[in-house]
Amino acid sequence: MRYRGSCHCGVVSFEVEAPAHLQVTECNCSICSRSGYLHLIVPRKQFHLLSGEDRLSTYTFDTHEAQHYFCKTCGIKSFYVPRSHPQGISVNVRCLDNSDKLSMDIEQFDGRNWEANAHRLKPLDRNS
Predict the structure, then answer these.
(1) Residue ranges of the alpha helices (H) in the chain?
(2) 36 Ramachandran zone, left/alpha/beta (phi>0; psi -120 to 50)
(3) Cα–Cα distance between 49 and 47 in angstroms, integer?
(4) What stretches of 3-113 show up as alpha helix (H) in DSSP?
(5) Please, what are the domains in the chain?
(6) Three-state secondary structure call for residue 20
(7) Whole-number Å distance between alpha carbons of 83 and 67
(8) 83 φ, ψ to 5°?
(9) Regarding beta strands 103-109 and 21-27, do their DSSP bridges make them parallel or antiparallel, or are they unpaired?
(10) d(CA 43, CA 89)
């Protein structure tokens, strides 16, 4: 399926290809828990930025591997390049249109103890 999403103000918009029933992850690390992020990680070719590339600001911390993209207008992070899957994109499911009506399973991840748990993250499907 093709899902549309955006930041709060709509300046940054995107589409993502994913199954009808989503498998998402809720992480308890400092940045994810504070922002209420629900991760849907997809290969880059399944993510399409439609508008707002020039309105994005990047934030990194700790290892500086993850590239967190925020809208310069409203401050919402609707997607980013995760440290765990640098070849993919993590979309915040809560930024998808009608996110409250989507079919999904939410798996908990202990990101506060990332180094000890990173091996538990599922790899991206190489065929996608």
Answers:
(1) 30-35, 114-117
(2) left
(3) 7
(4) 30-35
(5) 2-120 (2.170.150.70)
(6) coil
(7) 8
(8) -60, -40
(9) parallel
(10) 6
Q: How far apart are CA 55 and CA 52, in angstroms?
A: 5
Residue with tokens 């998808």: 96
Q: Are 16 and 2 in contact (CB under 8 A)?
A: yes
Q: Please answer whether residues 23 and 91 qualify as being in contact, where contact means their C-beta atoms are separated by less than 8 angstroms.
A: no
Q: What would the pLDDT profile of 8-61 be if each residue is shown by its tens digit?
A: 999 999 999 999 999 999 999 888 899 999 999 999 999 999 999 999 999 988
Residue 21's DSSP bridge partners are 103
Q: In the numeric block, which tokens belong to residue 74? A: 């409203």
13, containing H or E segment? strand 13-17
| Torsion sign, CA atoms 51, 57, 61, 65 | positive
pTM for the complete prediction?
A: 0.88
